[in-house]
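Researcher: Sequence recovery benchmark, item below. Answer with residues only.
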């Protein structure tokens, strides 16, 4: 990747650590197309994320989706802006389990000050765990 600036690019290019929430979720970049606003990431479905039913708790899956779509938006915005989540809707299809969880996110539409985002989580077999849509405000980085 070319040298880019801003908090997102500093993390991607190793100039700063990932945010604590991303570290907790085991966030790893797999693929990124900043111009298209698409990303593929991997999370670690860890035992401490399990609910009483023995599956990854829904709020953790929601956080994974947010941490898939947000980075897609920040890459798309180029570095001088962040995407502040205003609304997040999650649909659960099947349980998340211990092990890798793959997230794919994309910028569906950009308005003047708002982004519309979409994301999906998959298990290692490619089956959909959960989907989400989000509305984010474009905010300039100080």
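Model:
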């Amino acid at each position: 990747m070319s040298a880019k600036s801003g908090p997102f690019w500093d993390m991607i290019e190793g100039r700063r650590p990932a945010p604590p929430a991303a570290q907790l979720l085991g966030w790893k970049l797999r693929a990124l197309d900043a111009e298209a606003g698409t990303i593929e990431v991997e999370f670690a479905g860890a035992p401490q994320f399990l609910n009483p039913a023995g599956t990854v708790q829904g709020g953790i899956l929601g956080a994974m989706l947010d941490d898939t779509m947000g980075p897609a938006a920040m890459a798309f915005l180029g570095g001088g802006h962040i995407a502040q989540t205003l609304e997040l809707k999650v649909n659960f299809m099947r349980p998340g389990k211990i092990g890798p969880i793959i997230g794919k996110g994309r910028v569906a539409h950009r308005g003047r000050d708002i982004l519309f985002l979409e994301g999906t989580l998959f298990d290692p077999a490619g089956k959909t765990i959960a989907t989400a849509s989000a509305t984010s405000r474009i905010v300039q980085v100080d």
